[in-house]
What does this fold into?
Amino acid sequence: MDIIFIDELRIPTLIGIYPREQAIPQTIEISLQIGTSTANAGNSDDIRDTIDYAVVVERLRSDLSAQHFHLLEKLAEHVASLLLEDFGAIWVRVSIAKLGTMRGVKRTGVIIERSRLPT
It folds into this structure.
């Protein structure tokens, strides 16, 4: 298995359980590791034979501008499902962090790993 990665993608979104968080977008930071085979793309040199990280980024920006999540855990599950189901990843590690939400803390967040069930 090979890994395509996207590190420290910053996206404004509505995230949180408090009234202020539900009204004012916060910038979150997303890092992804996407397990897939890149062998075909390595041979063909064709973007259609791999997961296009530019398409992943645009999809995340679009999705997160249109939705509100209460918990980072729910947002992480949404991102993992999107990568597994819509992009055909075999395995994913999703790290999502809120930035500067607490005094003296740079980031708070979650990291999850999920795999696609064999068919």
